Amino acid sequence: MARRRQIYEGKAKVLFEGPEPGTLVQYFKDDATAFNNQKRGVITGKGVLNNRISEYLMTRLAEVGVPTHFVRRLNMREQLVREVEIIPVEVVVRNIAAGSICKRLGIAEATPLPRSIVEYYYKNDELGDPLVAEEHVTAFGWATPQDLDDMMAMALRVNDFLSGLFLGVGIRLVDFKLEFGRLWNDEEMRIVLADEITPDGCRLWDIETNESMDKDRFRRDLGNVVEAYQEVARRLGIMPEAGPRDMKGPVTLQ
After folding, report:
1. Can you tell me whether residue 30 is helix, strand or coil?
2. Domains along the chain with CATH numbers
3. How confident is the model over 197-249, as pLDDT tens digits?
4. For the residues of 99-110, what is the DSSP string, one character each?
5. DSSP state, 107?
6. DSSP labels for 50-77?
């Protein structure tokens, strides 16, 4: 097992120092959390599937002109990414009412929204990632108005592309979360798509049955979580070559 310096550990991933300056190795764990970390579990094989799904979706988005931090997949659980300065604002795009918006606004689940709605959430686990307005984001310096314009434009572009992509394999893209980062090249900066795009951060429903194919199966104790992720990967044509129990995590240098 590789020995390398750990930079950061989140709920579902670990970031390690990359092999070249300006790069990181992103390791996908099998850990699962819900309700702001109040519910925790381990879904064996989830990290392998998320690595492959995120690789595929990030690659396809790059092909249509969406800049991302993704460089390449290294193995079944790791990918090489560019090091970026993460903007502490999660961007959520909603196409159909589900999750928190139903409770906040009294909308029945599965109600089609009049148009795609973009929301901003402040990335802060202790506060439960609260919903914020553009005014909060710019007033507190989390992002500039230009940053937000770039993020909004990219989020809607991602939504258009992924909605069509998933529709083609019989999946409805209900909503999803994106994170963005500032990528510096000497004195030049640009906003790029970062983190991951996986069933952990998307609501994906089967078009015929409306059956959940994402982390809601874990949140709601519906069972067959990894099987749902496998089905998403199968429909996208990217099932992993090996089984989910393929490798252990790297040893962290102290």
Report:
1. coil
2. 3-84+224-241 (3.30.200.20), 85-206 (3.30.470.20)
3. 999 999 999 999 999 999 999 999 999 999 999 999 999 999 755 444 444 54
4. THHHHHHTPPTT
5. P
6. HHHHHHHHHHHHHHTT--BSEEEE-SSS
